[in-house]
Amino acid sequence: MFVITTITIATFAAATYWIMNRHKPLKHLLSDFRYMLDMQGAGAGGLIDDWINIRRNKIELPDASRKIAVITGGARGIGTEVVRGLLKANVTVIMGIRKPDAAKKMMETMENGKNLHAFSLDLQSQKSVKEFANCVTKEFPEINYLINNAGIMYGDYKLTEDGIESQFAVNHLNHFYLTHLLLPALKKAGRVEEPSRVVNVSSCGHYPGKIFFDDINMKEHYNTIAAYAQSKLAQIMTARYLNKLLDSQDANVKFYSVHPGIVDTDLFENTTFNKLPWLKKIFFKTPEKGATPILFACFNKNIVERGGLYISNCIEGISNRYSKNIDHQKKLFDISCELTGIDPDKFGKN
Ligand SMILES: NC(=O)c1ccc[n+]([C@@H]2O[C@H](COP(=O)([O-])OP(=O)(O)OC[C@H]3O[C@@H](n4cnc5c(N)ncnc54)[C@H](O)[C@@H]3O)[C@@H](O)[C@H]2O)c1
């Protein structure tokens, strides 16, 4: 009985899916279906992981006076709670946000809000990234933490003003560019015993991902889930590759990537969860809990020697096999340099 019911439901679901998408060529239809299932699997795995490791997801904030942090995003969602944690730890925080005025209330209401600064940053634009980096380094020539937090998920196909697919540009490429521009300041602040840290806020949603090296903008066939997975995978691969590169240059900068958990934020505005807010309230983490593994990546002393680590719930997370492939990492680094006009031989030496 159970088998018959399952087969009937599966057949019905597959037929409905086919009717809704019958204009697509079969190969695209099948790959879209696979991405949908794989992403649901990754999300369910993430939820289970959050529940299993609920007690591990905690951190004691140190006193980090005189330390400087730069965070992208921060006016809402997980970023706001990371900012709150950093300020509590007496860190001076610089937010890169599209509307700096939005930080005013945070400055007035948060503990140590006087240590919060905000500059304009639009990650859809390389020009804006450059202007932001210039403003920051002019006032703050040394930086201890860079938290590449801002992100977008799903939505229609869109190219940025630089001609890059928007999820790849916002989540990975323009953070890669920002990291390059802030590296001199990060290197200046880093010490052997206390290196500076770059934290890429990635996602368990990287799991079904691969890098479309021959068609990074996915022009041939756009699947928004595959594009999100590609961008989040790229952040993990970049943390691993840059950690090795900067180690080889004896720089005191470490790189980490973090899955914050499945968190109740506006990131889901392009998904069905947006219509089911109560479901998010019941099953998802709070933004405060989502900020915890990011603060862990900034402050935990035991991971100093473990640069390149992928963290989930304040322990080592499981990233997909693709992210560990060194040839793929190098190829992604080269293509990211090319798309941002950086000479790969000079990366980290500025
Ligand atoms: N919420 C989750 O369940 C979840 C799970 C895994 C990973 N993440 C990652 O966590 C990070 C934070 O997401 P969140 O859940 O707080 O979502 P959110 O939508 O609440 O916050 C995203 C932030 O990014 C900023 N942003 C978006 N586009 C930008 C642009 N062009 N320029 C500058 N800033 C821009 C937004 O203004 C906002 O502050 C993202 O990188 C996301 O991929 C979230």
Q: Mind telling me which CATH architecture of the largest domain this is? A: 3-Layer(aba) Sandwich
Q: Reading side by side through the largest sheet, how are the strands ordered?
A: 3-2-1-4-5-6-7-8
The string of secondary-structure elements, in order, is HHEHEHEHEHEHEHHEEH
Q: How many structurally independent domains?
A: 2
GO molecular function, one term: oxidoreductase activity
Keywords: Oxidoreductase
Protein name: Carbonyl reductase
InterPro entries: NAD(P)-bd_dom_sf, SDR_fam
What does this structure look like?
This is Carbonyl reductase. By secondary structure, this protein is α/β, with parallel strands linked by helices. It has 2 domains: 2-49, no CATH class; 64-342, Rossmann fold. The chain is 46% helix and 11% strand. It has helices at residues 2-20, 26-52, 77-88, 104-109, 126-139, 166-189, 224-248, 277-283, 287-299, 326-340, and strands at residues 68-72, 92-97, 116-120, 145-148, 196-201, 253-259, 310-312, 315-316. An 8-stranded mixed β-sheet has the order 3-2-1-4-5-6-7-8, sandwiched between helices. Helix 3 links the parallel strand 1 and strand 2 (92-97). Helix 5 packs parallel to helix 6 (166-189), helix 6 (166-189) packs parallel to helix 7 (224-248) and helix 6 packs across helix 10 (326-340). Bound molecules: nicotinamide-adenine-dinucleotide. Residues 72-73, 75-79, 97-98, 121-124, 149-153, 170, 201, 203, 259-260, 262-263, 265-267 line the site of nicotinamide-adenine-dinucleotide. Nicotinamide-adenine-dinucleotide (NAD) binds at residues 72-73, 75-79, 97-98, 121-124, 149-153, 170, 201, 203, 259-260, 262-263, 265-267.
